[in-house]
Every structure is written in structure tokens, then in C-alpha cells.
Amino acid sequence: MQDLTQRSVFREDHLQFRDAVRHFFDKEIVPFHAQWERDGIVPKEVWRKAGREGLLNTMLPEPYGSGGDFGHAAVLIEEIARTGASGLGFPLHSDIVAPYIHAYGSTAQKDRWLPKMAAGEMIGAIAMTEPGAGSDLKSVRTTARRDGDHYVINGAKTFITNGINAEIVVVVCKTAPELGAKGVSLIVVEDGTPGFAKGRKLEKIGLMAQDTSELFFDNVRVPVDNLLGEENLGFKYLMHELAQERLVVAVRAAMSIEAFLQKTVDYTRERKAFGQTVFEFQNTRFKLAEAKAQATMLRVFVDDCMRLHLTRELTPDRAAMVKLNATALQNKLLDEFLQLHGGYGYMTEYQVGRAWTDARIGRIYGGSDEIMKEIIARTL
User: Fold this and answer.
1) Burial class (CB in 10 A: 0-12, 13-18, 19+), 289
2) Strand 124-127 to strand 168-174: parallel, antiparallel, or no bridges (unpaired)?
3) Which of 20, 33, 140, 239 is most buried, most CB within 10 Å of its CB?
4) 4-59: per-residue pLDDT in tens?
5) How far is 124 from 97, CA to CA, in rounded Å?
6) pTM
7) What keywords are assigned to this protein (predicted)?
8) CA-CA distance, 264 to 295, in Å (whole number)?
9) Under a CB-based contact definition with an 8 Å cutoff, are residues 181 and 137 in contact?
10) Beta carbons of 323 and 367 less than 8 angstroms apart
């Protein structure tokens, strides 16, 4: 794996932050993650602890966050991937939900919600996907009807990360259904609001410790003041912020490849078969050499996209490219790493099998492969 200190995209403060994140993960995350996978959820107290350590809303200014930038966010994302702590919904909370509120919320809204999110006292989710709609945000059927000083929200969402733990949800809904995509708005709903209900915790093939659920809105009345930005501009807001969401997925994929490449090298050097280590077989060395070459090529691209994003120059098509390439390579190489572990690769104790299963969602969420290709194709 690459020496992290040699990556020019990170500054000294990023490296110091990584030390703090690793210390927290070693103490508070790694020893307990297997139990959280069995439970199907990460305890809320873990979020509170992360908030006290300044690990949430890392790229937002104080008092809304810890005053860092996307480099700090990337460090935490990479440590999640390095440790295989796939149950942590911190990136969704900190790097997707909170930035929507910070970018489009009023001062009163930011003061009301973001300090609590930074402290881990209010866990965030975003409700985009609906049953039957998938990645097609233009086909959203959840509605928000204006009634005096309130909106009345009706509809259903599914595949919502942090859905069970969520205490604040940014809901993608139609305030003017007749306008299609031009009638989409973003409205914040807090847990406990009458009519807002959380459905079952969804059973997934991967990300076992991550709480993913359905959400239901039955005549949910929220103040008009809960609207983010302007009415009917939600689709524009979503498109503007999706580049960062896709980069988050790519950053995680690249570090996952590097971490499990090293784990596979270590395993094959120790495991013996037919009188020699598995690493001594030419096929093994060639597979790992090819993986290192591909991982290094991806690393250069991901870090360049990070560098661009730190100056807000990452374009939607480039973000689509890095997500498409990173997740495809992650799925391909983790499959090969699992194969090199033999039967032990299929056992949960070696992590590579879990990582392989967890990785599959990367080609679906944040915009599917097919959506990424469509975005790229528009530039041809």
C-alpha cells in the first residue's frame, strides 16, 4: 500500500487528523464492529463519542463542524475503508446531509441543526430513493402540499442509510408535481414529527452493521421554515452536490483496494500449500502485481479528483468517471483477493469476504453505473 505521507494531496494537518481518527477507531470501533454487524446497527452512543472527538461535520466551519475541509473528510472515509468498518454512516451524515443544510439552509436553520449534528446528538439521513423509482430523481412521487404556514408531506422512501438512527432527514419531495424535475424541493423533517414513521430495518447482503430502512410520511406537517433554499429548486441543489457524494464513494473504494491488497500479500506470504507459500506461486505474484499496478493508477486519479474538489473544481462528469472506475476496480480486485485466500476467504474472520460483499453496493448507490455512463456520454 502507498505510504500515506507521500501523497501530496494531504497536508500536515490532515496527517495529524489521521492519527486521531486511527486512535479513535482502534479504541471505539474495531473491537466492536463484528457485534454491530450481528445487531444490524451502530449504537447512537458511538455517534456521540465521534462528535465529542471532532470526527463529524469535519469539512464545515465552526460551530457547524470542526473547521476542516474535504481532506479531513477523506481521511475519515479512508479509515472506515481501511478497517472494514462499513457500518459507520458518518460520511453520509457529515459529507452529504450536513453540506446540504450548510449550503442551502438559512442562518436560523444552520444554527438549529448543524451544531447538534457536529456533536453526534442529531444523526442525519437524506430521503431520495423511492420504491419503483431507483436512481430516477425526476420520478419522485412524495409530495409536499402547502397549507398555510406548513407543508403537508405524503409518500414513502426506501434504502435510506442511517434510517433507523436518523433524528433529522432531508426529504426530497415534489412541491409542484406538474413541473416534474422543476417541481422538486428539499424539506427537513425531524424525528418525532407526527405522521413520520420508520419502517422495517432492511435485510441486505452487505453493510450488515449499517441501519438501512424504509421511511413513511403520512400527512406529516412541518413548518414552511423547514424548506431548504427556495421552493422547486431541489433538483438543481441535488445535482450541484452529487459530485461530492460520488467522490466519497471513490475515495472509499480506492482505500479498500489498497488495504485488502496488503492483507492479501500478508496472507499469501504466510499460507503454505504444496510445500511452499501461496505467494511463491507465479500466478499469485502476477495477480498481486497486476492489482498493485491497477490500484496505483486508480490512486493517482482519485487523489487528483480530491485535489480538484478541494478547490471546488471537480466537474460532474469527472466525478462520474472516478466513481465508475473506482467501484468497478474495487469489485474486480476484491474478488481476486478473496480467491487468493481460498476457503478462508469465504469465512467472515478474514474480512476480505465481507469487504467483497460490502463493495457491491458501490456500483449502485450514489448513482448506478448506468447513470454514471449516461453522464459521461453527454460529454462525448
Assistant:
1) exposed
2) parallel
3) 140
4) 557 899 999 999 999 999 999 999 999 999 999 999 999 999 999 999 999 999 99
5) 6
6) 0.93
7) FAD, Flavoprotein, Oxidoreductase
8) 14
9) yes
10) yes
